[in-house]
Write a structure and sequence with these properties.
This protein is α+β, with helices and mostly antiparallel strands. It has helices at 13-24, 38-46, 71-85, and strands at residues 4-8, 30-33, 54-57, 64-67. A four-stranded mixed sheet has the order 2-1-3-4, with helices on both faces. Strand 3 and strand 4 form a beta hairpin. It starts with a strand and ends with a helix. Residues 4-58 form the Glutaredoxin domain. This is Glutaredoxin domain-containing protein. It comes from Kineococcus gynurae.
Length: 86
């Protein structure tokens, strides 16, 4: 399974909604606070994002990524990973 990373900031409402949606979907993920991790902030900035959360599946070069609370993308990811794991 590809790794899922949520790049977030403290007090981010959309970040918390993203965590809840990932949890409901049974997807494991890692949270990285971009206010404390300069390399993480540089990664999301290099991808063109300026708003948290940024969800990355796999690597920045070969994976998929998006910004904001996107329950549609999380549901599609859960379906995709369930198919791969079946």
């Amino acid at each position: 399974m590809s790794s899922i990373t949520v790049f977030s900031t403290p007090s981010c409402v959309q970040c918390r909604a993203t965590y809840r949606s990932l949890d409901r979907s049974g997807l494991a993920y890692t949270v990285v606070d971009v206010t404390e991790d300069d390399a993480a902030r540089a990664t999301v900035t290099a991808l063109g994002y300026v708003q948290a959360p940024v969800v990355m599946v796999g690597s920045p070069e070969q994976g998929e990524h998006w910004s904001g609370f996107r329950p549609d993308r999380i549901e599609a990811l859960a379906r995709q990973l369930a198919t791969v794991g079946a």
